Amino acid sequence: MIVNNSLDEVKKRESALKIIKSIMSDNGRFGLYDVTGLSGAFLASENDLNLLETYVGPAIFEDELQIYGKEHLGGEKLLGVNRTSSGILATILALVEEGSNVSHFLAEFPAHPSIPRSCKLVGASYNEYVDIDKFKILDNTSLVVITGATMDHKVISESLFRKVVEIAHSKNIPVLVDDASGARLRTAIFDQKKAIELGADLVVTSTDKLMLGPRGGLMAGREDLINQVKLKATQFGLEAQPPLILAMVNGLKEYKKDNLVKAFSRKEEFFKLLSSKYSFFKLSPTGVMIKEEDLADDIKERNIESDLSVKDFAFLFAMVLLKEEGIITIPAVGMPGASATIRFDLSTQDVVDIDLDVLIKKIDDSFNIFLNLIDDVDSAKKLILG
Amino acid sequence: MIVNNSLDEVKKRESALKIIKSIMSDNGRFGLYDVTGLSGAFLASENDLNLLETYVGPAIFEDELQIYGKEHLGGEKLLGVNRTSSGILATILALVEEGSNVSHFLAEFPAHPSIPRSCKLVGASYNEYVDIDKFKILDNTSLVVITGATMDHKVISESLFRKVVEIAHSKNIPVLVDDASGARLRTAIFDQKKAIELGADLVVTSTDKLMLGPRGGLMAGREDLINQVKLKATQFGLEAQPPLILAMVNGLKEYKKDNLVKAFSRKEEFFKLLSSKYSFFKLSPTGVMIKEEDLADDIKERNIESDLSVKDFAFLFAMVLLKEEGIITIPAVGMPGASATIRFDLSTQDVVDIDLDVLIKKIDDSFNIFLNLIDDVDSAKKLILG
């Protein structure tokens, strides 16, 4: 066993950081393939950065956010927030009174915790529903929330979406849509309409999910409501700062529905090609993944003697992928306690256009080196712990 | 009268933006002198930006924030927040229970509204004091707040600071210091100790005030308290995102106490030199300023006929400063409703090292052109409204 505790995990991460820095200085950013799917983009030209530092730069990016954000989400007015959770809090601070009710409809449990948490903060009662026949709007309800797509990419149907909006509007209650990944997943992959087109009064999306923006939230909707939300956001420090707004604008400019469709179609092909050679790949929402126990089962069937633990196998394979091919995955670089699942996200900028055969060759070559290291504990240890 | 309403102010701002863009494309950023004192810095190397986009970049900047933040503020652990107000909200969410009391001591009224506002949100009672003899900590108090320096740069004395901490600690109540500009003003200019050294349990500072960081907040303090604050910050989307953390680290690296001392000493000299020629300059906390009525009085004494309003004079002078010399001030570029006071902040990056005679020559030349435009309404109008 190589990685025994949190301290070893810290060493592993430090060892991975060293490898990344060395690849960066030898080959630059092009030598790295970040397929974690968890890295926010920060697209900015030199001119952008120069403008950013002047008093007027932020105002210019704000104006552009109105234009490109409207194209993406619709609505009368746009608002950049620090995170999707910040936008949800600002909305609930602005629209939900103490003692009132909030109803939330989503495709499947569990709901994102930021919604019940913000309701609790203002002293509102919160109820959530996945079954339209049981969906209820109590008296004294101040807000109805719809989740467009859950964290596991489960999408609500357009007809259910419209139905919930209709019930809410028949009682004059505004509808907020949490469309974190849904604003793109629903429209690009499931051919649905924008939340605003389906009747939502407010919508919030995560600019780092399925697009090349920074971690942050973008809101759109009725101007009167956005103004109320913006006031609360500014009062409590929930709004997006200028560097984020700049990166949101550039992420929106770069967003192409077709790229997303391509990534989603390529993951099936990628999975098929890999599964013809390996037993341990599984489909993930945005690509493929290897669970550590599936990798360990494969090693067992190969009858290779090894002192490594089930997690060690995943750590070792991830470190080989990084060292030999510059492929960044979570088990190599994650903080202590991070998952040992090796995920390959095909929608990330680094691989969205890569030839799948090239990527598979990199995985093949790494896997062969990995196999040779399994019974060479000293070398494996050196690679993992530095 | 040239600027009659908000629409004219919008036109003025657009005209100023065009001039800025044209200077940027002709002479680059070096052709501009942003003396508004309101622009956040965003220092980042190409390597930083490349790292920023990888999964591990943010973790690397977080590690650096611990090192450079500790040097700046002291404390066991650091936390980047989206704004100083966000840090105050996160602290109050973490430490202040419903129904408890919060006491706030500051050098003079008014207090920053984020403190009473956050108390109200969690249902706590809030009291503020400027007189130590009247300062009270009621039973069931959960937090004591000290403001290190007010928005107008009024600083609390070290002995009062220590006294409030002592009273709070004698009752086992944690102390949060809102040291937005104070973390630098108190230490660099007034030779005081860091808030943590004076006994504070938590401190928050604004990384865009008197240093070259982005708009954002940096917290430091006892590890157990920071961990509680961080949990609330993460839950409600109050934490600083990776681009901000990166710019905070670089701002902290660039911070030199001596530069600040220099800017503060230079403002007196700057004021003296200008006042030997002009009647309308006043000292400001970080440089000099021209109030529109003082400028108008000067024009009146010169007996120049003009159809311009009192505010028009300030707008016109600000536009000449921008067009002729690239000097950015608020009356030229401000949003509708912004102040018509022309401020020259000497602590901003663009002029911190400039020869004062060079800067004064630019002001002289602009003022002469301005005088010639006062009775040429058509040209003045063209310059202001585009």
Write the layout of secondary structure elements.
The structure is a homodimer of 386-residue chains.
Chain A lengths: L5 H22 L5 E2 L11 H7 L4 H17 L3 E5 L2 H12 L5 E5 L8 H9 L2 E5 L11 E7 L10 H13 L4 E4 L3 H8 L12 E5 L10 E5 L1 H14 L5 H13 L2 H19 L5 E4 L2 E4 L1 H10 L8 H16 L1 E2 L1 H4 L8 E4 L10 H19 L2 H9 L1
Parallel strand pairs in A: 1-11, 3-4, 3-5, 5-6, 6-7
Antiparallel strand pairs in A: 2-8, 7-8, 9-10, 10-12
How would you describe this protein?
The structure is a homodimer of 386-residue chains. Chain A has helices spanning 6-27, 46-52, 57-73, 84-95, 114-122, 158-170, 182-189, 223-236, 242-254, 257-275, 292-301, 310-325, 330-333, 356-374, 377-385, and strands spanning 33-34, 77-81, 101-105, 125-129, 141-147, 175-178, 202-206, 217-221, 281-284, 287-290, 327-328, 342-345. With 386 residues, chain A is α/β, with parallel strands linked by helices. The mean pLDDT of chain A is 94. Chain A is 50% helix and 13% strand. The longest helix of chain A is centred in the first third of the chain and has 22 residues, at 6-27. In chain A, strand 9 and strand 10 form a beta hairpin. A seven-stranded mixed β-sheet of chain A has the order 2-8-7-6-5-3-4, sandwiched between helices. The radius of gyration of chain A is 23 Å and the shape is globular. In chain A, helix 1 packs parallel to helix 12 (310-325), helix 4 (84-95) packs parallel to helix 5 (114-122) and helix 7 crosses helix 10. At the A-B interface, helix 1, helix 2, helix 3, helix 4 and helix 5 of A face helix 1, helix 2, helix 3, helix 4 and helix 5 of B.
